[in-house]
Amino acid sequence: KRLADRWGKRNIFGGFLSISSLCLLAMWFLGKTDVMAAFVLLVAHGFLYGITIPLLWAMIADVADYSEWKKGRRATAIVFSAMIFGLKVGLSIGGALSAWLLSIFGYVADATVQTPAATNGIRLLVSVIPGLIFIAGALLLLRYPIDKKMEQVIEADLKKRKSTAANTQKPNYA
Fold first, then answer.
1. Phi and psi, residue 76, nearest 5°
2. pTM of the predicted model, to two decimals?
3. Any residues with CB less than 8 A from the CB of 60 and at least 6 apart, and which?
4. Which end of the chain is more exposed for a tag (fewer CB within 10 A), N or C?
5. What whole-number distance in Å separates Cα of residue 9 and Cα of residue 103?
């Protein structure tokens, strides 16, 4: 929260997504016996990526605020439901894509030993591929318009609108 308050949710999200992607990309360069290094990189990735999760949901709330600010109508339910739908579709596509890529790489589920192509495919699926996807996500955030400055403007304008609306409403005694 302190980091997001200082530099904005978008910047912290993108920064930690980028750094966690470096941990994933570094996994590609490990040897077969570098178990401790793999453990350290995966823990670091998990910690760094974990910071982005609450920021994502806070950013979705910012989108609802942005919608109200632009259109004058609160759309929290549709914004969150669209996000959850997108998350489910993404998880489904990601799972299917992973299975498809494993089959392309020649992975055999019951095999005691995998072929070198399957082993390299598995290594790609836990390092380079997700690392590049994370980097793409961080780059896409550069187009996300709600930065720290805009967050503050939206918050102040909405607060002012609500205050004005509350002061202009007259009690109904009928």
1. -60, -45
2. 0.85
3. 79, 80, 83
4. C
5. 38
